[in-house]
Amino acid sequence: MPPRKVQSFDLNGIPNNDCIGKCNSDKRKEVTDGDLCNMVKSVRDNLPVRCVGEHALRKIYLLCQYFGAFTNAMRHHFKGRMNYVEICSGPGRCIFRESKEEVDGTALSVVQHPNFDLINKAIFIDYNERVVKILQNRINNLDKSNVASAQIGDYNNIPQISSILSGLTKDCLNLVFIDPTDCSLPFSAVREISRILNKVDFIINFAVFSDPARHLRHALLSKDRYSASRQKYSNFIGNDVFFNNPDNIRLAEKDGTEEDLRERFKEEYCNSFRKMGYLYYDPVRINKYYLFFASREEIALNLWKNIQRRDELGQTSLIPQLFQ
Q: Which positions ≥6 away from 159 have C-beta within 8 Å?
């Protein structure tokens, strides 16, 4: 298989013949630790890799394309004053379980992006100490440690995240990518990041098709039994409006309304961003999650829409009629 490329940006793709491939969820629990494969190491650097689905390529593509557009558009206005922050960064290399192809993940894709030299600081945060050490090793091997660093942090520990980010210069423009696997990111953490960094665009993995798809209806109808789920999702969207809305409760009582409930849940998430002044947002569906973009600036949304004109294979998209 030829190396994967995101447009002109090489993901350093290479077959990993040690990978058994097509692991189901039960098998992944058996052979991984913190999503790091215990059976296979990277062909490129002999460091651990993370097992991911093929759909991750779309996420890497959109992130890299926006990173390029963001830094190009702002390079003269914020020369030397742009930062990149990634939370839930992972180890830097991953393997597609379907094709057994090893590629750079989001963190290394950004670090090796042609526009990375325009960045003042890049901070990669993960709660897993082992993952952080692996990623920092890879950053060091690329001779990028003068700009990029991997640090231990948990988005549930907001003072810890605040401490990490407080060292960034206040007048910088920031791009923050947060990549959880479920809807456990508290909106209070998003608010705090916005407060500390001030000028920031967000790209967030909004995994509404994972655990919320199974539990939203039950959490609406069984307040006591599903109190933990209600609290988790209320924390995620930043309020309890969704679960206290009588219209949502009545909708949950009907069969076949799961899609409508997810849409209303998503709308409440959008409302929380609007209340912070993020009037320009766009959720892009990728497999079982949305890649949710939010900014205070219309030009940023235009850039985000524009990068969707072509997909990761270089094919023209029908999405943004505005730019045709």
A: none
